[in-house]
Amino acid sequence: MNFKVTLYSTESNPCIPVNYQYPMSAALYRVIAKGDAGYAAFLHGTGYGKGFKFFTFSQIDCPFNINKEEKYMKLRGNELSFRISFHLPEAMENFIKGLFQSERIDIADKKYRASFVVKSVERLPDPLQTRKENEIVSVILKPNSMIVSGIPAENGKYEYLSPDDPRFVESLIYNWRSKIATCYGENTAQSAILLLEILPIKMAFKPRLITIKADTPEESKVRGWLNFELKVIAEKRFIELLLNAGVGLYNPMCGGVEVV
Question: Is 131:236 a contact under the CB 8 Å cutoff?
Fold first, then answer.
């Protein structure tokens, strides 16, 4: 399920951290915890096995100016919106809407903080609604937040890959198959037909580097990519998993996609 959430601040031109992804993910967890502590503990703890959270959100959509030296974004207005997706049954729509209605969301790090209230929550159309669960579907997906692909490194972190590296696609498919195994079982995942191809667009691939837990001892960097499209062929239910839970790594912050 995909939703558009619009936030409103009573502050004039609020400032949020330039690396807002991790603080925003934490804020969304708090909203979920307030609405359903059991579900939140499940997401924050084990997720759906292998640590998958099975929700993701897009970049924020609003006009802003960036102060690169001080590492903050100053909004040119007091509203922002974003897409958020959950891999949940259709019957959970009202539950998700209820989580966000009239909630307060703080986007903050050690230096900058802005408080917002939820102005609206809108369910977005399902582009695959007319297709059957096991039907083989071909779609073009575009990232609405950076896609992170990587392979484990010896230091316990990741070697991040760029879209022109053949391992980029291999890593995305491996991650996709792992998600399918979590939802539908290992046998289903191993036999699933999963085709994924990068389709460059007129602009060059765009790298994006974000900092997680900025200005703390746990600070780390994550590199992802934008400005490309993905041609995907698979069963509808497996493509829905990408739409609802994200592509690649760090999905509670990255990897949001939508149908072109």
Answer: yes
Buried b (16+ CB within 10 A) or exposed e, 138-174: ebebbbbbbbbbbeeeeeeebebbebeeeebbebbbe
Residue-wise pLDDT tens digits, 158-183: 999 999 999 999 999 999 999 999 88
Phi, psi of 233 (to 5 degrees): -130, 125
Q: What is this structure's pTM?
A: 0.89
Alpha-carbon separation of residue 108 from 22, 94, 135, 180, 229 (angstroms): 9, 28, 43, 34, 31
Q: What are the pLDDT digits (tens) for 196-219? A: 999 978 778 999 999 998 888 889
Q: What domains are defined for the chain?
A: 2-123 (3.30.70.1890), 136-259 (3.30.70.1900)
